[in-house]
Design brief:
Layout (H helix, E strand, L loop, with lengths): L10 E5 L3 H13 L2 E6 L7 E4 L5 E4 L3 E3 L8 E4 L6 H8 L8 E5 L5 H8 L5 E6 L2 E6 L2 E6 L3 E5 L5 H12 L5 E3 L4 H21 L12 H17 L6 H14 L6 H7 L10 H11 L4 H13 L1
Parallel strand pairs: 1-2, 1-6, 2-5, 3-10, 6-7, 7-8, 11-12
Antiparallel strand pairs: 3-4, 8-11, 9-10
Bound molecules: ketopantoate (KPL).
Length: 303
């Protein structure tokens, strides 16, 4: 049973100090929220944050070591999809059933993992199209304002919702709360399932995918995802997914996708949680998705 006492001033813990995590910490600082970044090794390091209007702000974010976190009510995980479970396993001794967990990453498949690990905790899934870039450990640049979509993954007490939603809504605005967040997560998944592997495989900036020679691949990938989504009850037209992809290609034309960067810097990619998630759902539903399957194999070879 979840605690019904509304949390008026929740203590926030943000895992890591990646670009989006750093931006959330900066917003917490500006809003006067009680927050800490959970990091591997304790260090108080000053950061210069350049906001979207070009104004620089100096701050020393609050940090504590992940092995010994300060108390928290709400745990935000702006990490890679494959880091979610290991982080929660590490934090398990400090997580009480009433603590709220918020997932914020590319890809899908972690909700199922978290539910097994922490079956009773209130869980929020979120996706954002905010842009942030960390040229080095001491600098953070806000590169784009984007919409954030959020939703609870189980029935939670109304008082809890009413106390938490306005607090989170201010972190990455504008934000929209969904009754069923899965549709928003699938739509974002389709964007990542096209842009991330294609830019990584062909070594491109996002904007280069606007070239006509990629349009058949883009349609094929979206057709398969639309079939899987529709079979799951999220009726969507493939053309709508293609249009969303094209909008992001244009809006982020000058950026390299996260998967492009992961391959470039020889890091693990999130392919298992992006096209890999599409293929595993398709297998369960007996739907053929050869284009997504091929992208998984090609990225695996590059990894
Ligand atoms: O989320 C992204 C990523 O790079 O992971 C997109 C939307 C593709 C922007 O680059």
């Amino acid at each position: 049973m979840q605690d019904k006492t509304p949390i008026v001033f929740p203590k926030l813990a943000i895992v890591g100090k990646g670009a989006i995590g750093g931006l959330i910490g900066f917003k917490c600082h500006q809003l006067g929220y009680d927050y800490q970044h959970l990091i591997k090794i304790q260090q108080q390091q000053a950061v210069t944050v350049t906001d979207i209007s070009g104004v620089s702000h100096n701050l020393t974010p609050h940090t504590s070591v992940i092995a010994e976190p300060d108390q928290f009510d709400l745990l935000i995980l702006p990490v890679k999809a494959y880091q979610v479970l290991p982080v929660l396993v590490q934090l398990q001794p400090f997580i009480q059933p009433q603590h709220i967990i918020m997932l914020l990453h590319n890809g899908m498949g972690t909700i199922e993992q978290v539910r097994k690990q922490l079956p009773n905790n209130p869980l929020i899934a979120a996706t954002t199209s905010y842009g942030a870039f960390k040229p080095d450990v001491n600098r953070l640049i806000e590169t784009g304002l984007g919409q954030t979509h959020l939703g609870w993954l189980a029935n939670v007490d109304t008082a809890l919702k009413q106390s938490i939603e306005p607090i989170l809504s201010k972190l990455l605005p504008p934000s929209k709360w969904h009754q069923d967040i899965n549709l928003a997560l699938w739509k974002k998944l389709a964007i990542n399932a096209v842009i991330n592997p294609l830019t990584a495989i062909h070594n491109l900036k996002n904007g280069e995918l606007a070239d006509i020679k990629y349009s058949t691949s883009i349609s094929n990938i979206c057709d398969e995802i639309a079939k899987v989504m529709s079979a799951l009850g999220y009726l969507v037209d493939s053309a709508e997914l293609v249009e969303n992809v094209q909008q992001v290609i244009t809006a982020t034309a000058n950026n390299y996708s996260s998967m492009h960067q992961d391959i470039k810097f020889k890091r693990q990619t999130e392919i298992a949680f992006i096209n890999g998630y599409v293929t595993s759902k398709a297998t369960e539903l007996n739907i053929e998705v050869p284009h997504n399957l091929r992208l998984v194999e090609q990225v695996r070879r590059l990894e």
